[in-house]
């Protein structure tokens, strides 16, 4: 049976991040994607215009609808902007206990606009973080969670260890905001592992965090262990960034289906141009 993966996140009307990026990523990995929308974000590649939160009751009803019928092999959790939203999601995850939970603690949009209320970080730490099989903060998010200043790989390792002690089973501190090669640090509660690729110099990175965490969730649903899922997800998002789409006036979206279009659907080829 096809594996089933649920994203619980915000909707990005421009299609590059959030629910839309997650569903594209699931499809690219050959799993069946489902969604629970927790907020509607009016954003594009340049700015966030407005945010409307979905009520906690409606969030809970959406989760019930998915679990009582189709079922879930893995869950990816993204944007959770308020403590009430976090409580609703946490209660349902505790009720249904999905096999794998990947949590991307989304705090800011690519342009720096906050997507989480300023007083919600403490709720994230106490309510959501302990439910994570894998937590995927970038450096600014890891700094918010730990109170640390992160300026080196050693700091990333220390932050991963500190976050792990807060209750999640594995932590990946992403190095996209650092300099040099793109290096991510995984701590699984026992050992540190590094995942490194060349840094691709492009402004078109809208939705990379959503895509990476969704790819990990898909790989876990397909049976990969956390290190293997991390390596495969990093390879996938690196390809998506390398062939990112120059759409919009700001940070354009990544190309979620580059490999599929290139190798699987030749009828979509247009003189070899997939940029």
Task: Write structural notes for this entry.
Keywords: ATP-binding, Kinase, Nucleotide-binding, Thiamine biosynthesis, Transferase. Its EC number is 2.7.1.49, 2.7.4.7. This is Hydroxymethylpyrimidine/phosphomethylpyrimidine kinase. It catalyses: 4-amino-2-methyl-5-(phosphooxymethyl)pyrimidine + ATP = 4-amino-2-methyl-5-(diphosphooxymethyl)pyrimidine + ADP; 4-amino-5-hydroxymethyl-2-methylpyrimidine + ATP = 4-amino-2-methyl-5-(phosphooxymethyl)pyrimidine + ADP + H(+). One of its GO terms (biological process) is thiamine biosynthetic process. By secondary structure, the chain is α/β, with parallel strands linked by helices. It has a single domain (4-256), classed as UDP-N-acetylmuramoyl-L-alanine:D-glutamate ligase (3-Layer(aba) Sandwich), CATH 3.40.1190.20. The chain contains nine helices and nine strands. The chain has helices spanning 18-28, 56-69, 83-96, 121-128, 139-146, 153-164, 208-221, 226-242, 258-264; strands at residues 4-12, 32-43, 48-53, 74-77, 101-103, 134-135, 171-173, 182-187, 192-197. It has a six-stranded mixed beta sheet with strand order 3-2-1-4-5-6. A three-stranded antiparallel beta sheet has the order 7-8-9, sandwiched between helices. α3 links the parallel β4 (74-77) and β5 (101-103). The protein starts with a strand and ends in an 11-residue tail after the last helix. Mean pLDDT is 92; it is low at 266-275.
């Amino acid at each position: 049976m096809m594996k089933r993966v649920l994203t619980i996140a915000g909707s990005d009307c421009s299609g590059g991040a959030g629910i839309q990026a997650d569903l594209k990523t699931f499809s690219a990995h050959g799993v069946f994607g489902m969604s629970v929308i927790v907020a509607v974000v009016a954003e594009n590649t340049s700015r966030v215009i407005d945010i409307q939160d979905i009520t906690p009751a409606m969030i809970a009803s959406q989760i019930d609808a998915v679990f009582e019928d189709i079922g879930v092999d893995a869950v990816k959790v993204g944007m959770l902007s308020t403590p009430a939203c976090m409580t609703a999601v946490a209660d349902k995850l505790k009720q249904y206990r999905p096999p794998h939970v990947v949590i991307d603690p989304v705090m800011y949009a690519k342009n720096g606009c906050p997507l989480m209320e300023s007083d919600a970080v403490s709720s994230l730490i106490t309510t959501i973080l302990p439910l994570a099989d894998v937590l995927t903060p970038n450096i600014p998010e890891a700094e918010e969670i730990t109170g640390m200043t992160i300026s080196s790989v050693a700091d990333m390792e220390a932050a991963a260890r500190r976050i792990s002690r807060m209750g999640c089973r594995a932590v990946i501190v992403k190095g996209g905001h650092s300099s040099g090669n793109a290096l991510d640090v995984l701590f699984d509660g026992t050992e540190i592992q590094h995942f490194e690729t060349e840094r691709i110099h492009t402004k078109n990175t809208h939705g990379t965090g959503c895509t990476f965490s969704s790819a990990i969730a898909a790989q876990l649903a397909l049976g990969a262990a956390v290190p293997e899922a991390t390596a495969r997800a990093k390879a996938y998002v690196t390809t998506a960034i390398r062939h990112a789409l120059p759409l919009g006036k700001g940070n354009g979206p990544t190309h979620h289906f580059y490999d599929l279009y290139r190798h699987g659907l030749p009828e979509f080829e247009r003189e070899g141009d997939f940029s």
